[in-house]
Write a structure and sequence with these properties.
Length: 209
């Protein structure tokens, strides 16, 4: 995954092989490698994420049953251990949201304030683009329903006081099962999902409707 920071020339690679496992960082100019997180494997630590500004790394620890978040420049020795799974960073890299008891959102610069807990029936929470009218942060998540008209993907504004009023983005995905950790937001605001079909997969861009 390449950082979006213009001054950053690093590339992250996930290694999962019998001889060497971990998350390494490669300087594209010199070819120098450095290990960010040793002994990482897809089986034991299925969720790994680098913040948009390239400064934070989030890794789910299967042994701890929690998410480890640490500054890229310092490494895991300075890690915060957060009680959740599938951590996703906000576009400005100031927050991380994950699944826990409902949704848990942590402000990375102020972890001692504790999480913002949202008791919501849903999964795969992630930050969307900031609201263009108010500048407020937004959360997007999957919920699913029992009929064709039930909203499957919803959104709401987010702040330390919690969620605003939820509104549906996409409905009618009951016949397109999506696996965990396969949803994201494209730069133009459309929802990106992956649908697995037998031994292959399809990438979908979903319009709000």
């Amino acid at each position: 995954k390449e950082s979006s920071a213009a001054s950053d020339v690093y590339k992250r690679q996930y290694l999962d092989s019998p001889g060497r496992t971990g998350i390494i960082e490669i300087d594209l100019q010199s070819g120098t490698e450095s290990m960010l997180y040793d002994s990482w494997t897809m089986e034991s630590n299925p969720f790994a994420e680098v913040s948009p500004n390239g400064e934070w790394v989030s890794v789910y620890s299967g042994k701890k049953g929690s998410t480890v978040v640490f500054p890229r420049a310092v490494g895991p020795d300075a890690a915060m251990v957060l009680p959740g799974v599938n951590g996703r960073f906000s576009p400005d890299s100031r927050w991380i949201v994950m699944e826990g008891s409902g949704f848990l959102a942590f402000e990375l610069a102020n972890p001692q304030a504790g999480p913002v807990q949202v008791m919501r029936r849903g999964y795969q929470p992630l930050f969307g683009r900031d609201d263009p009218a108010t500048g407020e942060k937004t959360l997007i998540w999957r919920e699913g329903g029992d009929d064709e008209q039930s909203p499957d993907i919803l959104t709401a504004t987010f702040s330390r006081s919690g969620l605003g009023e939820a509104r549906p983005l996409v409905s009618g995905l009951q016949h397109a099962p999506l696996t965990l950790s396969t949803m994201d937001v494209a730069p133009d605001g459309r929802i990106v999902v992956v649908r697995f079909v037998e031994r292959s997969s399809e990438v979908w861009l979903l319009e709000s409707r």
